Amino acid sequence: MTYETSESQAAPEDGRTPRSRHRPREIKVPEVTLSFWIIKVLCTTVGRTAADLLNEKAGLGLTGVSFLLSALLAVALVVQFRTKAYRVGVYWPAVALISVVGTLISDNLTNTMGVPLETSTTVFAIVLAVVFIVWYQRERTLSLHHIDTTSRESLYWLAVLFTFALGTAAGDLVSERIDLGYWLSAVLFAAAIAAVAIAHFALDLDAVWSFWIAYILTRPLGASIGDYLSQPTDGLGLGTVVTSVLFLAVILGLVIYLSVTRRDVAEPEQATEFVA
User: Fold this and answer.
1) How does pLDDT run across 10-20, given as a tens digit for each residue?
2) 126-131 long-range Cβ contacts below 8 angstroms, 24+ apart
């Protein structure tokens, strides 16, 4: 499946040139290929299982783990922002860390502060919508093929963080409160992603919005898969250690493959938003 948008679609409707600050030479994010979606789902799974693993085994508590992983994420993002172009070995570790931090934000609200999942899901959805509104009002595009300035990259990573937090809260709400279970939840979210593809092709749903909706839905999909594999109740009981190591190994293999082939390096004139 391929979602595509053109430069003319992403251009400002009023004809204005999007504002640019500190423009790097190249786009700072990968081309959206099949490998992109595979690694994204794997990162979301690792985000879920690694957060549970660190919370259970590290002895730091949920708050301590949150501070530790947030500090590591800050370092990863500094390195990412300092690069002049997309680098697979820099970008994907940042995604993996932000997936864990996004999970921990949701878990802290639910488990530490007692915020109901219905409330946190609503709040994260509103915050993410605000980020998108500010992003579009400032830059006149939400396309990944325009992540070529410091301003746009900042808004991009902020949006990614809240997609993970929203996906975690929404996934927990579906699998735990509605009591579908991990496996049925995974099937539900996979079906929802398929519905986005159908809506794009059959109903001409905008390519950029198709991408972001699918991006959000991959979070609860990956979390449901991670819980199903790791949890002894209603799952396979592999444990968080085995599940995390297994998925990290696959991610590492794909990252090495992409580092060699450079198949996911986007060209400025390309306009693919969703390839699967």
Assistant:
1) 444 444 444 44
2) 127/162, 128/159, 128/162, 128/163, 128/166, 128/216, 131/155, 131/158, 131/159, 131/162
Distance CA 142, CA 157 (A): 12
The per-residue pLDDT for range 238-270, each reduced to its tens digit, is: 888 888 889 889 999 999 999 998 888 876 544
Estimate the share of the chain in helix, then strand, then coil, as percent rounded to the nearest 5: 70, 5, 25
| pLDDT at residue 176, as a whole number | 73
Distance of CA 4 to the CA centre of its chain: 20
- Per-residue pLDDT of 97-109, as tens digits, reads 998 899 889 888 9
CB 165 within 8 A of CB 124: yes
Q: Give mean pLDDT, residues 217-227.
A: 87
On the CB side of 86, CA atoms within 13 Å amount to: 25
Cα distances (angstroms) measured from residue 37 to each of 40, 84, 215, 216, 260? 5, 24, 9, 12, 19
CA angle 251, 256, 225 (to 5 degrees): 10
Q: Which residues pair with 59 in a beta bridge?
A: none
Tell me which residue has tokens 């500094």.
78
